[in-house]
Specification:
The chain is mainly alpha-helical. It is built from five helices and no strands. It has a single domain, classed as lambda repressor-like DNA-binding domains (434 Repressor (Amino-terminal Domain)), CATH 1.10.260. The relative contact order is 0.17. The mean pLDDT is 92.
Length: 69
């Protein structure tokens, strides 16, 4: 979750938006942005993807067998 937190925070700052402004543009609550940037682990994947979509990214489940391939 740390990498996600760093990615979102860095990208948000690159586009010069406050957490509040970014939440509004992403269509999520301010608390979602705060939880992501704090590295919380109890996040709703749909909400995270709304945020990541702002940067052209998406999270998806990965099969552990695929990682070992």
């Amino acid at each position: 979750m740390r990498r996600l937190a760093e990615f979102v925070k860095e990208r948000r700052k690159e586009v010069n938006l406050t957490q509040e402004e970014f939440a509004e543009r992403a269509g999520v609550a301010l608390t979602v942005i705060r939880k992501i940037e704090q590295g919380k682990t109890n996040l709703n994947m749909d909400k995270v993807n709304l945020v990541l979509n702002m940067f052209g990214h998406e999270l998806a489940p990965v099969n552990s067998k695929e990682l070992k391939g």
